[in-house]
Amino acid sequence: MQNNNLNQPAKQDPFAWVKVFQAENGLEANIIKGLLKSKGIESQLQGELLQGALGEIPFEQTGVDILVYALKERQAQEILLNYRQLKQSAPDWVCPKCHELNGATFEICWSCGTVKNDESE
């Protein structure tokens, strides 16, 4: 007699790619990819090329998914939780060199590459 164990969840392949976040745009997706990489987590971006089709396809379909290996999902979720909290609580800042407005999660000015410092508001 074969035992199918239908009540037990199937074990997930630890090297399967799983979605951990949907970024608003390619820039945010690449910031998150770099953040994960700095913590030793390999990731993939999915849907980044759809950004060019904005207007041709609905806005909600142009988000960029960030994928990590299933065995790194928990660690990635902890990092992303910290990212979301920082994004919500920290103010945007103005670059002291070129005066461009940068998002709270940016440590380097997107326009000129100047590093954020304590005087940046």
UniProtKB/TrEMBL annotation:
Bilayer-crossing regions: none
PROSITE patterns in the record: ZF_RANBP2_1, ZF_RANBP2_2
Source organism superkingdom: Bacteria
InterPro entries to which the protein is assigned, alphabetical: DUF2007, DUF7577, Znf_RanBP2, Znf_RanBP2_sf
GO terms assigned for molecular function: zinc ion binding
Domain RanBP2-type: 87-118
Keyword Cell cycle: no
Keywords annotated in UniProt: Metal-binding, Zinc, Zinc-finger
Descriptive protein name: DUF2007 domain-containing protein
Annotated source species: Pseudoalteromonas gelatinilytica
